[in-house]
């Protein structure tokens, strides 16, 4: 999460987590888009009767909307919604496709929205059969292109809807093309995965082991179940609706629609205390079994197999576009990999796209949605360029500009294809790891559905990738000599020993920088079960796309727990080692780079407009007004203040229309008499108070309370706030730990050397003098060597030697390209320390610029010469020069606008050697002239 204030109490954290999960449960796995609706799309609502069950005379109604483009007849697209949504969830997508010339049919799947029936998880006899009835309906519509009763029709959708399109293509030959998005191949492996095999994994880039006896993915499964069981609480108005509901037509929109909780004609809410909600008893029983035992019986496996696309992919031969997300802890790249292999083996043509989003990373953006539409257009009409069967994947850079990572797209000839695997040596001894009783405490690898938020907040990222001590074994590679682009799932062979029986373990692959900072790409982990100990298994790690930069290392971590999965209750100890001769097989897929760009449409919300607003509201309540405003042109500029004003009730204006700019490498002094507004300005800069008008930008990011860019600032503004009962060193360690960054990035040694506290750093802070507290506060501001450091009166309480040391430290600090802003009343120190100054008076800017320019502004100059008398005669003769006098070898004069260089030139022409020339005034003189001697 982008720098949100994490609750400090355990209860607060659980409350925040519960809110996030509740929102996800409400939003489900929807695939929604935004944008203005086309003006010429006409919609028709209809309740279409379908059998309540296979071979049943009873009927339920399916709520549909038909989107008709301007020109018809046209090819049709069945657009299915995600789990927990309804037809309204994909309304914007439908209009977008209709605007591209398709007739689009959306519907609420049984159990959702106003449709009747119960949820069977895309059972071929129920939801898939319903979709076939919808093709029957399209065949009767004059708007749809039709050849001898066979409509030209494609199917698409995301997640739950994507699986429906695959199942439909495998059972109904009238489907001409499909484009499933971020969906699954095998729901058993999606919810109960096992990434270990005693045989060999497939050679494709992201192949998973897909072995039996998996580990229950409890958090994601719980979100699914909550989205379905929660439907009973709000009712299912369509369950008792008439067989054919009212049809209405209105240009531009469907009328008569309302949120699911609002009773509609022909039906009303159905309050229910049934814990199964709107799931069938079979689905409910399967979930209960998994949630309580962590294992799937054969009956549950048969159910999950029946409702999985894997049951029909051997019958799919129509052109298929598989779009899968690279940031997806629910349905990873291995699911798309399996589907691609199976359809290709059946004789189908497959085009595969991996993009930077997913269930954790966001929906496809406009560009990708355009590619999906182009694919369907070509295969339904023959229009446009042949999209082919190539494979493209997005590579998200590890470096960021303005908080946004760069993205480039690489295209390879085809998928599936045998991946080249680089063998990377790992080192590490056999290590004992403990599985605690009840699986608690557990490792934290991510928060399903919200993982992408951690990438922009060091504080939240620090909460992820946590492995409790003693619960994880680690194996590390040598530093990379050149960039290694991982494209898919790596493999490694492990040996596991322990008490007789089985072991449940979790493997993950970290990217580790040279200074030890770990990143878990896509928060992805592989759960696996070793069925018999001791045993050797080949583990297929999660599919990722990640450039590992030179100097970085790969770290394989094998842990006994993960909070997203259900672990065994019994405590145990295992010994984990690399199998003899085992290396890390890293997949590499060479290709042609199409270009670079910045990702767009990577939105966290995956629900409809209303539900997205709920997500935003919940997150906004946690974040406390986080700022998203970024100016890319100022990405390298440390500080820009424009029109800054801060007023208080009663007519007091502390700062008025203040504007100035600070460039990299500056040491800027903020000067002004008491009450000038200096501290108020710094408090606004640190996000401690909010401006009345104007803006502050740090590296292009607009400052607001809790803004992520504040992590790039080190500050001492509000006072130290140290805990008196702890030592100085402990206070610094506690502060740094709260930032969530690795201890090795703190640079404690440098900071403590600056503080100059000596052995006193190990004493309790309550024994410190004011000067010692001040030095400790300065050391705290410098922890992590921030890019911008802001200090308010840093020399208070320091003695002259310490002030001199501080001067040298700040100058050296700025020489590295970093920037320092310092407020001080010691003008002589500012003059010797700072390169630039900003002078404030009564809240307003009165002067700014280089120190030399400010001191020279009055025109008084001094020249050290070899012939003082001659120099005085030359200067007196110059036009406008006054007040010429001498002190020894130094001649002073008021040049009154004459450039100092011209005066030097005149002296040299007269045969006077000028050893030194500069302003006569000190900064104090200039300051007093600017703000008035009375101050």
UniProtKB/TrEMBL annotation:
Belongs to the ABC transporter superfamily. Residues 231-274 are annotated as: Disordered. The keyword Cell cycle does not apply. Residues 231-241 have a biased composition (Low complexity). Keywords: ATP-binding, Hydrolase, Nucleotide-binding, Transport. It comes from the Bacteria. This is ABC-2 type transport system ATP-binding protein. InterPro entries: AAA+_ATPase, AB_hydrolase_fold, ABC_transporter-like_ATP-bd, ABC_transporter-like_CS, Galactose-bd-like_sf, P-loop_NTPase, Xaa-Pro-like_dom, Xaa-Pro_dipept_C. Signal peptide: none annotated. The lineage of its organism: Bacteria, Bacillati, Actinomycetota, Actinomycetes, Pseudonocardiales.
């Amino acid at each position: 999460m982008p720098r949100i204030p994490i609750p400090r109490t355990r209860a607060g954290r659980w409350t925040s987590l519960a809110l996030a999960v509740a929102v996800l449960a409400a939003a489900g796995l929807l695939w929604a888009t935004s944008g203005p609706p086309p003006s010429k799309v006409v919609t028709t609502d209809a309740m279409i009767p379908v059998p309540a069950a296979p071979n049943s005379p009873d009927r339920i109604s399916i709520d549909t909307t038909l989107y008709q483009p301007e020109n018809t007849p046209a090819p049709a697209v069945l657009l299915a919604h995600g789990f927990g949504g309804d037809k309204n969830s994909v309304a914007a997508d439908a209009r977008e496709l209709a605007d591209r010339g398709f007739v689009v049919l959306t519907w609420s799947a049984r159990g959702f929205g106003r449709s009747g029936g119960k949820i069977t998880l895309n059972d071929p006899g129920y939801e898939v059969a319903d979709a076939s009835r919808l093709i029957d309906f399209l065949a009767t519509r004059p708007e749809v292109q039709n050849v001898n009763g066979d409509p030209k029709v494609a199917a698409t959708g995301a997640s739950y809807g994507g699986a429906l399109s695959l199942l439909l293509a495998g059972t109904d030959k009238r489907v001409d093309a499909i484009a499933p998005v971020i969906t699954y191949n095998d729901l058993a492996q999606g919810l109960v995965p096992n990434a270990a095999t005693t045989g060999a994994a497939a050679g494709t880039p992201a192949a998973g082991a897909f072995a039996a006896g998996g580990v229950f993915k409890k958090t994601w499964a719980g979100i699914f179940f909550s989205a379905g069981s929660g439907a009973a609480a709000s009712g299912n108005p369509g369950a008792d609706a008439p067989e054919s509901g009212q049809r209405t037509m209105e240009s531009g929109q469907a009328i008569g629609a309302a949120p699911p909780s609002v009773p509609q004609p022909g039906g009303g809410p159905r309050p229910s205390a049934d814990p199964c909600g709107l799931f069938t008893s079979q689905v409910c029983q399967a979930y209960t079994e998994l949630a309580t035992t962590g294992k799937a019986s054969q009956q549950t496996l048969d159910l999950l197999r029946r409702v999985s696309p894997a049951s029909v992919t051997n019958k799919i031969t129509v052109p298929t576009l598989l779009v899968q997300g690279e940031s997806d802890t629910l349905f990873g790249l291995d699911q798309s990999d399996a589907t691609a292999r199976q359809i290709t083996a059946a004789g189908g043509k497959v085009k595969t796209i991996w993009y930077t989003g997913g269930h954790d990373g966001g929906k496809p953006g406009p560009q990708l949605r355009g590619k999906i539409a182009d694919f369907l257009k070509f295969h339904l009409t023959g229009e446009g360029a042949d999209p082919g069967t190539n494979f493209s994947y997005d590579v998200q850079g590890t470096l960021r500009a303005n908080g946004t990572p760069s993205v480039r797209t690489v295209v390879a000839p085809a998928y599936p294809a045998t991946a080249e695997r680089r063998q990377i040596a790992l080192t590490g001894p056999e290590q004992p790891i403990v599985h605690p009783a009840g699986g608690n405490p557990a490792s934290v690898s991510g928060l399903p559905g919200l993982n992408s938020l951690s990438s922009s907040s060091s504080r939240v990222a620090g909460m992820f990738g946590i492995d409790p001590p003693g619960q994880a074994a680690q194996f590390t590679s040598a530093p990379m000599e050149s960039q290694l682009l991982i494209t898919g799932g790596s493999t490694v062979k492990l040996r596991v020993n322990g008490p007789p029986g089985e072991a449940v373990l979790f493997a993950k692959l970290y990217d580790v920088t040279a200074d030890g900072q770990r990143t878990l790409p896509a928060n992805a982990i592989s759960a696996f079960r070793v069925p018999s100990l001791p045993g050797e298994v080949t583990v297929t790690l999660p599919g990722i796309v990640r450039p590992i930069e030179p100097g970085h290392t790969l770290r394989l971590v094998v842990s006994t727990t993960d909070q997203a999965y259900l672990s065994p209750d019994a405590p145990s100890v295992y010994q984990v080692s690399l199998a003899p001769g085992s290396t890390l097989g890293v997949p590499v897929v060479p290709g042609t780079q199409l270009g670079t760009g910045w990702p767009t449409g990577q939105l966290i919300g995956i629900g409809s407009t209303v539900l997205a607003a709920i997500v935003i509201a919940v997150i906004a309540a946690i974040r406390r007004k986080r700022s998203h405003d970024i100016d890319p042109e100022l990405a390298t500029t440390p500080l820009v203040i424009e029109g800054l004003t801060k007023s208080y009730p009663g007519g007091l204006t502390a700062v008025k229309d203040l504007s100035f700019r600070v460039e990299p490498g500056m040491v800027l002094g903020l000067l002004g008499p008491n009450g000038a507004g200096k501290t108020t300005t710094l408090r606004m800069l640190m996000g401690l108070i909010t401006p009345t008008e104007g803006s502050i930008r740090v590296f292009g990011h607009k400052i607001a309370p809790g803004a992520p860019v504040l992590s790039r600032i080190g500050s001492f503004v509000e006072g130290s706030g140290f805990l008196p009962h702890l030592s100085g060193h402990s206070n610094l360690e506690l502060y740094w730990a709260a930032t969530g960054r690795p201890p090795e990035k703190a640079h404690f040694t440098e900071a403590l050397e600056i503080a100059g506290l000596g052995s006193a750093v190990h004493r309790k802070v309550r024994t410190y003098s004011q000067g010692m507290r001040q030095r400790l506060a300065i050391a705290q501001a410098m922890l992590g060597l921030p890019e911008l450091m802001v200090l308010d009166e840093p020399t208070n309480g320091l003695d002259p030697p310490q002030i001199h040391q501080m001067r040298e430290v700040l100058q050296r600090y700025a020489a590295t390209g970093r920037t320092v802003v310092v407020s001080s009343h010691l003008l002589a120190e500012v003059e010797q320390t700072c390169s630039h100054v900003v002078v404030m008076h009564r809240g307003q800017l009165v002067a700014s610029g280089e120190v030399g320019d400010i001191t020279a502004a009055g025109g008084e100059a001094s020249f050290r010469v070899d012939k003082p008398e001659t120099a005085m005669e030359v200067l007196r003769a110059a036009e406008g020069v006054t007040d010429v006098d001498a002190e020894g070898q130094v001649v002073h004069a008021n040049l009154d606008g004459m450039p100092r260089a011209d005066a030097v030139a005149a002296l040299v022409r007269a045969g006077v050697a000028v050893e030194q020339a500069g302003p006569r005034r000190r900064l104090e003189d200039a300051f007093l002239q600017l703000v008035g001697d009375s101050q």
